[in-house]
Amino acid sequence: MSRSQRRARSRAPKAQAAFARDLRTILQGLARAAALSSIGLAGCGSHHTPGELRQDVPAGESGTNVGRVAGGGAQMATAGSAAPAPMPPTGGQTPPRPPTGGTDHPPAPVDAGIAPTPNPPPEAPWVSLGCAADYRPPLLEGLKLTRDIDHAAVYSTHTPYLDQAVPGPQQVGRMYGSGTPCATASDATACQAAIDALLVPTPECGTTYECDPFLLVTAGDEVTRVGEGADLDALLGRVDTPSEAALVALLRADQQLACAQTSSQPLRGTEVREIADGYEVRTEWEACSAGLFSRTVRVSADGVAIEVASKRIGDSGCAIGRRPEGLRTQPPATAGTKLGAYFASAATLEAASVLAFERLARELTALDAPRELVACAARSALEEIGHARVVTALARRFGAEPGAHGLPPFAPRSALAIALENAVEGCVRETYGALVAHYQAETAADPGVRAVMSVLAEDETRHATLAWEVAHWLEPRLSADEQRAVHAARTAALVALRSELEPPIAPAEMALIGLPEPRLARALLDRLAGALGLHA
Questions:
Q1: What is the pLDDT of residues 433-469, one digit of tens each?
Q2: Rg of the chain in Å (alpha carbons)
Q3: Strand arrangement of the beta sheet that strand 171-179 belongs to
Q4: How far apart are the first and last CA of the chain?
Q5: pLDDT tens for residues 176-217?
Q6: Which residues 6+ apart lie within 8 Å of 207 measured at CB?
């Protein structure tokens, strides 16, 4: 080992302890502001014994065992039962779906004097809006407006419930943008001031939380805020492009817009197709722990938007936490109540995290990382075993049994691949998961859930600290292009996570287990991103 490497290792414990205190303070402050109560946190060294994690399993119930499968993967099985067979590989392909069009009509009898009913014309194909580098559909490309503009951007206004505890401005978040603001303005300063004056929530948003998105347009010295009314019709004219149809669906029908994904489940994202006198805009998206959904909005050429289909199309494989690469999950073996299904899914993913941290420890060792990082990764794997046990107990309490999970064989990865996964799964998802766990530990009405989340919150804070320490150590060793790729991945993960924060269960059940409702969840994520210097 070189002298510089020894110096770096000698500094690592002090630097890690300082960052752990900083992150702990951020999470603690945000959770306190939201829950109006204090939170006790711990450092990387666990202050509770393994026995404490296992005492929460009710009498007569066994915990969760993490069993290896061939090739380095894992599956989860309950103690005293046979391990379920590993899931077959999906190959990342979208499962076939039944056709959405009409069926062929048989010809009418000739002697009835009725002409045969013609087959309906073939439907136009669905066309994806695509996905920009920031993991958003390029919504504002392809607009055919009635006048020339310099810039257009879609904003979403929301008044976070968090602001009831922490005084501060109501937030307005930019969702999509195109062009350069004030590019042809005679007074760029005055133009920007006009933009700032319009970036405020509507009165309805501040009082009833009915917070609608809007479009802000600049053209020369003119700055206009466009809502869902006649001003939108005047700007668009006839709806005659897929982007215009998607924009109308967003502003007038609250249509979800999303990129296609294959990370946890194959989903098509937002697609548009032509129909008679207009378009249909369909989105498939994932709401974390709630499921996979599809919704279709029909937009006429004159700008009327109507929902025509909405359904749940599958189970979610996502989690607010560290997911190992290639994870495949099965639905709960026994669904029980919705709360049971929620905890069963969480238990499966907690068990999968064991393998993620074991792999990280091996990879950090191979990269000659500081010993403290390797030790924390190994400790995290052991803590995730305890998490799987206690969350499985919660699932069974609500009548559900966790399903199995499978992983492909682990292959060696480059430093870039490790950094990319760590940026997404650790710096974004796991860090936000730790914040939510703190919030649940303070607000869950159920004392058993509150007790479990108190332990998980402390552990997950250490896991999040590890992710950021790995980033601080590993990313400077990458090339400039690789560092930019990691930064882009972290930003995209933040955007994707924000779109997943939909309620997995009913409001009363969310209060029972302390989950923040969607607006508060997004507000917590936004505040966390700001505190950590993340920008979507």
A1: 999 999 999 899 999 999 999 989 989 999 999 999 9
A2: 26
A3: 171-179, 151-158, 213-219, 222-226
A4: 39
A5: 888 899 999 999 999 999 998 888 766 655 444 456 788 999
A6: none
Q: Look up residue 39 and give its amino acid.
A: I
Q: Which domains does the chain have, with CATH numbers?
A: 3-84+320-532 (1.20.1260), 146-236 (no CATH)
Question: Residues of 366-396 as b/e, b for ≥16 C-beta within 10 angstroms?
Answer: eeebbebbbebbbbbbebbbbbbbbbbbbbb
- Contact, 62 vs 77, CB < 8 A? no
Cβ-contact 426, 463 below 8 angstroms: yes
Collapsing DSSP to helix, strand or coil, 368 comes out as coil
Beta-carbon contacts of residue 149 (< 8 Å; ≥ 6 apart): 179, 217, 218, 219
pTM of the model: 0.61
SS3 content of the chain, % helix, strand, coil (to 5): 45, 15, 40
Residue type, 263: S
d(CA 344, CA 336): 9
The token pair that represents 406 in the structure block:
């499978």
What is the identity of the amino acid at 270? T
Cα(398)–Cα(359) distance, rounded to whole angstroms?
32
* Complete DSSP assignment for 341-384: HHHHHHHHHHHHHHHHHHHHHHHHHHTT--HHHHHHHHHHHHHH
Residue 10 CB partners (closer than 8 Å, separation 6+): none
Interatomic CA distance for residues 448 and 511, integer angstroms: 13
Kind plus residue range of the DSSP H or E element containing 130: none
CA–CA gap between residue 438 and residue 49 (Å, rounded): 20
Q: Are 405 and 87 in contact (CB under 8 A)?
A: yes
Q: Is 243 left (phi over 0), alpha (psi -120 to 50) or beta?
A: alpha
Give me the residue label for tokens 């392909």.
93
SS (H, E, C) 265-308: CCECEEEEEEECCEEEEEEEEEECCCEEEEEEEEEECCCCEEEE
Residue 321: pLDDT above 70? Answer: no
* Residues in contact with 412: Cβ distance below 8 Å, sequence separation at least 6, in sequence order: none
